[in-house]
Amino acid sequence: EIVLTQSPGTLSLSPGERATLSCRASQTVSSRYLVWYQQKPGQAPRLLIYGASSRATGIPDRFSGSGSGTDFTLTIIRLEPEDFAVYYCQQYGSLPYTFGQGTKLEIK
Amino acid sequence: QVQLQESGPGLVKPSETLSLTCTVSGDSISTSYWSWIRRPPGKGLEWIGYIYYTGSTNYNPSLKSRVTISVDTSKNQFSLKLRSVTAADTAVYYCARGGAYMDVWGKGITVTVSS
Q1: Could you say which of A33, A56, A88 has the minimum Cβ distance to residue B100?
Q2: Rounded distance, CA A85 to CA A76, Å?
Q3: Tens of pLDDT along B90-110?
């Protein structure tokens, strides 16, 4: 199975700054079949990005995804207070589908 | 607005069967794939499997021997059964819409395996 490694484990930034989250796969993720989710405490995960770079419905354009092969990035420009949460990547190119362990984005 | 709600016992004894149901509102279950995912305490998310409304399923090989996902189109629900549970099955269990990736999730239900 494809193992996804997210880095850093925790990212401490201030509102207004830019966040760069990494997701590295142990094997090539076919056809850029990778998504990003945001999860806040006590809430359901929220789909942000699918197909590595397409924003889901209603997601602000300050969120963007990029990458291919084994290296993927989620970038959040101009952090808003509501963006501080845990972010997960997931690949759906190969069964079994797998998730990264998450990056916690916290307020500095 | 599509909503999913998990229901079932919050406590299951070791060696017994964990049974959860997901009720879908705002969408017909006969239009999509539906999935179960879990998050053990202190760990990341784990894909359990998915079902299409026709009954076609796909499971994570690590759980395949113990898992059954079923669908009841008349009730707009789908269900998860996990047999022979151990403490390692303690987790927050989520149901979600989608097979490959999930665009709408339930809030999750905490299930503890303990005697």
Answers
A1: A33
A2: 12
A3: 999 999 999 999 999 999 999
